[in-house]
Design a protein that fits this description.
There is one protein chain. The chain is of the alpha/beta class. It has a domain of 211 residues. Helix content is 35%, strand content 17%. The protein has 7 helices and 13 strands. The strands form 5 sheets. Strands 1-5-4-12-13 form a 5-stranded mixed beta sheet. A two-stranded parallel sheet has the order 2-3. A two-stranded parallel sheet has the order 6-9. β10 and β11 form a beta hairpin.
Length: 332
């Protein structure tokens, strides 16, 4: 979906009265000019306060009352702070080299900075609710188009959740609730908030027993008479789950999260091909399926988040509108 890029609203400070006045002086002529160009001339005379949708006095085709344009501008200025999306692209770090030197380090997937170009209004995406553990990522593309990509397998019928800027891995519960309440005026009740998720230590991760399909915590000794909602299998039975964890997380995942960034370090931006990025995306997405990490780790789990972050980075590199050393990267 195309967006309306409102560059003028990026640095609008709601608490500054002078900024309000300056914004109105800039936006009003802009909006009035667009209405006129679109075939909606404005009436500044005696009918300037007539409601065009509630009056029979306004024949079809006449100029619209100026009050309609004023209400239009006020409505959008009031809702843009809660509904606009920051059009952000990634600037990847690629060391400068001499022309023709392809042996120098390439694109570093771990070193990039977001660059905010403006604010966009996406009517459909504005309907997407927030979760502190989102299952989709928004990738900004060329011409203001925004793509919605799954970060992990999503069962049919599940709700798609975006993120309003606060994630359980980067903000604690109190911070998340305060920030969401102050800007969006709601209290988040996503699973991450209800269960008070936070960044946890890998040694205390909860695994799903591959025998009884109930959870147990790594590193904690087995206790008799535990709750029926937790694994009561013997140590020898649990060991099979731990062996699977060692293979999928300590070996396979570790190898992927190390080898993929290392491979891109050998490539300059012009050498990165879409087929390469998509191949890695397919592999990482499969790792989050229930037959792999999704069926072994009980959320929250840092290894799961590592994969999702790498997926998001690759999605931005493949489909997004990013830059490397001031050179545009666009693979699709």
């Amino acid at each position: 979906m195309k967006s309306i890029v409102v560059e003028l609203l990026v640095h609008w400070e709601s608490a500054n009265w002078f900024s309000h006045m300056r914004m109105e002086l800039i936006c009003n002529p802009f909006c009035f000019r667009n209405l006129l160009a679109g075939g909606y001339p404005l009436d500044w005379g005696e009918k300037c306060l007539v409601d065009p949708f509630g009056s029979d006095e306004l024949p079809l085709g006449d100029a619209l009352p100026a009050s309609w344009a004023a209400a239009f501008i006020l409505h959008h200025l009031q809702c843009v702070s809660s509904n606009a999306h920051a059009f952000t692209v990634d600037r990847f770090i690629e060391p400068k080299t001499e022309p023709g030197n392809d042996d120098a380090p390439g694109v570093d997937l771990t070193q990039f900075s977001p660059v905010e170009l403006g604010s966009c209004l996406y009517p459909v995406l504005s309907l997407m609710n927030h979760s502190c553990d989102p299952n989709v990522a928004l990738i900004f593309m060329r011409d203001g188009v925004c793509g919605v990509f799954a970060l992990r397998p999503i069962p049919k019928g599940d709700v798609l959740y975006g993120n309003y800027g606060v994630h359980y891995a980067t903000h604690d519960l109190a911070e998340r609730q305060d920030l969401l309440q102050s800007q969006y005026h709601f209290r988040c009740t996503c699973p991450a908030c209800v269960e008070n998720w936070s960044r946890i230590n890998c040694d205390s991760m909860r695994l799903i027993c591959q025998h009884c399909k109930l959870p147990f915590t790594m590193g904690k000794p087995l206790k008799s008479g535990q709750c029926s909602k937790h694994c009561n299998c013997s140590t020898s039975v649990r060991s099979r789950t731990l062996l699977r964890f060692d293979k999928l997380v300590q070996k396979d995942l570790q190898e992927k999260t190390n080898s993929i960034p290392a491979e891109f370090l050998t490539l300059r931006s012009h050498q990165i091909k879409p087929t390469l990025v998509k191949r890695h995306l397919t592999c990482l997405t499969e790792m989050l399926d229930n037959s792999h990490l999704g069926g072994l780790l009980l959320r929250p789990a840092l290894p799961f988040d590592w994969v999702q972050e790498l997926i998001k980075t690759l999605l931005g590199l493949c489909y997004g509108y990013g830059y490397a050393e001031n050179a545009e990267i666009h693979l699709s």
